[in-house]
Amino acid sequence: MRARRGPRGFTLVELLVGTAVGAVVLAGIGLVFISQASQYQAHASRRAVQSSVRQALGFLEHHVRNAGYGVDPDRAILAYDSYDAAGDARVDGYPDGLTVHARSLHFRRLATEVGSDYLRFDKALERPLRKGEILLVLCPGAIRYAYVTVGETAPAKATSVRLDTTAAPVDSPAGPPGALFREHDALGDACFHDGESPVVVKVERTSFYVASFDDDGDPATPGATPYLMQHRGVDINGDGRIDGADATPIAVGIEQLQVAYILNALGKNTPPLVGVDDTVPWGETWHTETPGTDRPRLNDAYASPRRLTSHPANIRQVRLTLVARSTRPDTQREGDDVLTPGAPGAEGPALPTGTTSWRQLENLGTAPASAFDPRGGGFTRAVLREAIAPKNLLMRSQFIPVQPGGG
Is residue 24 part of a domain? Predict the structure, then answer.
C-alpha cells in the first residue's frame, strides 16, 4: 500500500514562469489601454478642432451675409490684411482682420433736437448707448442722412447722447469707428431741423481678427493659444477707451483667418479677385484713397462703370479661410501642415492663364508669425473655406424703418 503524499506547493521555477506570464499579460493589457486612450484623445482632439472651426465659420458667415443691411455699400465692409492684434498694427505674416456694418433692427428713435455734437430723443433709452456706437440720422424721406459716433456712454433712461467730434483715430479692427462714421458736420443741414423730426437708427459694427494669449505673458511664443476675437468698436468695459480690452473671444484654437474678395463683373467677364496675390488697402483707405477709383454712388445702375471698379462697395463675395488647431500639442507627432511651402501657385499642376490656383491660406506667404504658423508643432489642425455673398451691398437707396422704436 502506497503512503499518501501531502499537499504539494509550487516550485521556484513554476512561480517564476507564472509571474513572467502574468507580467506579459498585464503589460499587453496596459499597452492596449494606453493605445486606446491615445486614440480616443486623438479623435477627441480632432472632433474639438472641427467643431471649433465650424462654429467660428458659422458665426462669421452670419455677420458677413448681413453686411450692408441699411448701410451704404461704400462702408459696409472694411478689410485689414495681416493684422497684429498685440501691436494693433499691420505686420506681414499675421492673420487678416475684417469689419462689417449692418443696421440694427432693435433701435429706432425720433430726434426732437439735433445739435452739432448731440442728439435729443423723443423717448428715453431702454438700454445704454455706449461710447463708439454708430448712429444713422435720417432726414424725412431718407434723401439726406449722416453717420455719427457716440462720444460718451449714455445710460439707460437718458433722453440725449453726446457725439464724438474729435479727429478720427487710426483705423483698426480693435478700435473705434473711423472717419466714415463721423459726419457730425452734416447735421447742420436744414432737413435735420425743419418740419418733421429725423429718424435715428443704430448701426452695428462687428470686427473679427485672431489674437494669441499665453499664461507666461508672451503671446509670441509658439505654445500660446490663439482665439478668434470679436470687437464691436465700443467701450464694453467702461474704462473710457476703445481698444483690444473690449474684445470678446468667439472660438478657441483659431490660428489663421485669411480673407479674399470677389468683385463685380458683367456678363461673362471673369470677376476680379482681390486679396490672393496682392495686398488689400487697409481699412477705410480702400474706400477713400484708392488711386483711380471712382467711388460708387448709392443709386448707380448695376452696369455703371463705377460699379465695376476695385472698390469695396462692389464686393460680391467674401471668401473666408479659417484654420483651427488643437489647444494642446502632441509631442508624439509632427502635427498637421496646412500651409503649402514654395512659391504661390506651385502646389499643383499648371492651370490656364489667368486662373488662380487653390491655396489654402491665400496671401499669408511662407513665413507666418510664430504664434500663427499653421505647420507642425504636434498640433491637430483643420482648414475650412467658404465664399459668402453679402446681397445687401446691392442696395440702391436709403430707407426709414417702419418697425416701432426700441432699444
Answer: no
* 3-state secondary structure labels for all residues of the chain: CCCCCCCCCCCHHHHHHHHHHHHHHHHHHHHHHHHHHHHHHHHHHHHHHHHHHHHHHHHHHHHHHHCCCCCCHHHCEEEECCEECCCCEECCCCCCEEEEEEEEEEEEEEEEEECCCEEEECCCCCCCECCCCEEEEECHHHCCEEEEEECCCECCCCCEEEECCCCCCCCCCCCCCCHHHCCHHHHHCHHHCCCCCCEEEEEEEEEEEEEEECCCCCCCCCCCEEEEEEECCCCCCCCCCCCHHHCEEEEECEEEEEEEEEECCCCCCCCCEECCCCCCCCCCHHHHCCCCCCCCCCCCCCCCHHHHCCCHHHEEEEEEEEEEECCCCCCCCCCCCCCCCCCCCCCCCCCCCCCCCCCCCHHHCCCCCHHHCCCCCCCCEEEEEEEECCHHHHCCCCCCCCCCCCC
Q: How many CA atoms lie within 13 A of 386 on its CB side?
A: 17
Does residue 267 sit within a domain?
yes
- d(Cα 378, Cα 256) in Å, to the nearest integer? 17
Looking from the CA of 357 toward its CB, the CA atoms found within 13 Å total 13
Query: Is residue 80 within 8 Å of 363, Cβ to Cβ?
Result: no
Residue whose grid cell is 502635427 = 335
- Separation CA 326–CA 379 (nearest Å): 6
Q: Provide the domain limits for residue 96.
A: 51-343+359-394
How many Cβ atoms from other residues are within 10 Å of residue 11's Cβ? Answer: 9
Asked if the structure places residue 81 within a domain, the reply is yes
CA distance 220 to 357: 31
pLDDT digits (tens, 9 = 90+) for 333-372: 788 888 865 444 444 455 556 555 566 787 887 889 988 9
| Residue 343 confidence (pLDDT) | 44
CB of 208 closer than 8 Å to CB of 173:
yes
CB atoms within 10 A of CB 234: 22
pLDDT tens digits for range 65-118? 999 999 999 899 999 999 999 999 999 999 999 999 999 999 999 999 999 999
Query: Does the residue 28 lie in any domain?
Result: no
> How many domains, the chain?
1
> Phi then psi for 239, rounded to 5 degrees?
-90, 5
